[in-house]
């Protein structure tokens, strides 16, 4: 892929710290697919972010390739879009160090994800977990991205990236493009099926709370049947009906309808029917992704070709920014 100067640039990443969920898909990857023709798109597998919590090396390797395969199976096209593995482009870690020196301790301390993760991994509150957002800022700023398509939970990190870019540009004008978070109209926050006050997350201890993209159909059906709702038995969205509202959002996306159409379709029907319909719709939506991913994982040579070419293209773009940054801050040229 060559960068088209007429088009704006989109960048985003997913961590391979486990299996991807319906939240990752609906909040992020599904939206990316439709952006490929209108933007220069760069999507990476953030394996450097993943090691901020302990990983089993063999699993991390497998999950990294699995995320890449899922990117392609979801419809990201390596001919149109740069797909690569973060650790293959050394400039990410290089720029992250520099940005660390322009990021305040207080700013990082306020990050919700840091507070959550340090509470969850109290025995391993490492420096990487703390400076995680500066690595994310490096991912974004290296490619002079205009937009960052993410779910709501990542918006705080994009805002911090803007603050860092602003501070840097004030000291060294015209270094970085100012990025903006880009949220899908719906799906930006898919909630847990067991506790709809929490976002759906792969790190939840209760496996019934999330749907994995590679879950078998019978598991998807079971998880939807057990989804927490309420005792009101009306299929409408309301603040005091977070479980049902979440299911309506998921079903609407899975069947390409508006939430209003879903409410009309299920008027007068009960939760049992609705949950079965949700399960079936999600099974059908995910079927091609699961099957496509399984096929791609059998073709490691193809995946290798994709991530190697992607890294080459990404490294070229990243180097241009690094040279500029080095020059601006006073590092002697090589
Ligand atoms: P990660 O790996 O946790 O999630 C990947 C993407 O999925 C979205 N997402 C959700 N959206 C809606 N509902 C949910 N329940 C849900 N769960 C996850 C996330 O918002 C995200 O868009 N730090 C990032 C990865 C990252 C990154 C970046 C993102 C690293 N570098 C640069 C953008 C730009 C993260 O942990 O996402």
Describe the structure.
It is built from 13 helices and five strands. The chain has helices spanning 22-33, 47-50, 57-74, 91-100, 105-109, 112-120, 127-142, 155-171, 217-225, 242-254, 259-265, 271-297, 300-329, and strands at residues 9-14, 40-45, 82-85, 147-149, 180-182. β1 (9-14), α1 (22-33) and β2 form a beta-alpha-beta unit. α4 (91-100) packs parallel to α13 (300-329) and α9 (217-225) runs antiparallel to α12 (271-297). The chain is globular. It starts with 8 loop residues before the first strand and ends in a 5-residue tail after the last helix.
Task: Tell me the distance between the termini.
Answer: 28 Å
Spell out which ligands are present. Answer: tryptophanyl-5'AMP
Tell me the structural class: mainly alpha
Main sheet properties:
3 strands, parallel
What is the helix content?
A: 40-55%
Strand order of the largest sheet: 1-2-3
The helix/strand order is EHEHHEHHHHEHEHHHHH
If you average the pLDDT, what whole number results?
96
Question: How are the SSEs ordered, and which strands pair?
Answer:
Elements: E1 9-14, H1 22-33, E2 40-45, H2 47-50, H3 57-74, E3 82-85, H4 91-100, H5 105-109, H6 112-120, H7 127-142, E4 147-149, H8 155-171, E5 180-182, H9 217-225, H10 242-254, H11 259-265, H12 271-297, H13 300-329
Parallel strand pairs: 1-2, 2-3, 4-5
This protein binds tryptophanyl-5'AMP (TYM).
């Amino acid at each position: 892929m060559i960068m088209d100067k007429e088009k704006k640039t989109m960048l985003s990443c997913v961590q391979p710290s486990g299996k991807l969920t319906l939240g990752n898909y609906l909040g992020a990857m599904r939206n990316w697919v439709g952006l490929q023709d209108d933007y220069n798109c760069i999507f990476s597998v953030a394996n450097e972010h993943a090691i901020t919590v302990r990983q089993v090396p063999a699993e991390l390797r497998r999950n990294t390739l699995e995320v890449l395969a899922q990117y392609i199976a979801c419809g990201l096209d390596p001919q149109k879009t740069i797909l690569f593995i973060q650790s293959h482009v050394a400039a990410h870690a290089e720029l992250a160090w520099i940005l660390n020196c322009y990021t305040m301790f207080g700013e990082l301390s306020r990050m919700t994800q840091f507070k959550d993760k340090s509470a969850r991994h109290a025995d391993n509150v490492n420096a990487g977990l703390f400076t995680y957002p500066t690595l994310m800022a490096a991912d974004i700023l290296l490619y002079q991205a205009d937009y960052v398509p993410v779910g709501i939970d990542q918006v705080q990190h994009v805002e911090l990236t803007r603050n860092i870019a602003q501070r840097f540009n004030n000291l060294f004008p015209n270094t970085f493009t100012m990025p903006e978070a880009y949220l899908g109209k719906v799906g930006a926050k898919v909630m847990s099926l067991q506790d709809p006050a929490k976002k759906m997350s792969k790190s939840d201890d209760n496996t019934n709370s999330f749907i994995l993209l590679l879950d078998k159909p019978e598991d998807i059906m079971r998880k939807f049947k057990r989804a927490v709702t309420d005792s009101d038995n009306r299929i409408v969205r309301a603040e005091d009906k977070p479980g049902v509202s979440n299911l309506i959002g998921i079903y609407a996306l899975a069947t390409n309808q508006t939430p209003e159409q879903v409410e009309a379709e299920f008027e007068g029907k009960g939760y049992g029917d609705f949950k079965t319909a949700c399960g079936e719709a999600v099974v059908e939506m995910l079927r091609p992704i699961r099957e496509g991913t399984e096929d791609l994982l059998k073709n490691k040579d193809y995946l290798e070709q994709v991530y190697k070419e992607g890294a080459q293209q990404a490294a070229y773009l990243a180097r241009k920014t690094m040279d500029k940054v080095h020059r601006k801050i006073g590092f002697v040229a090589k």
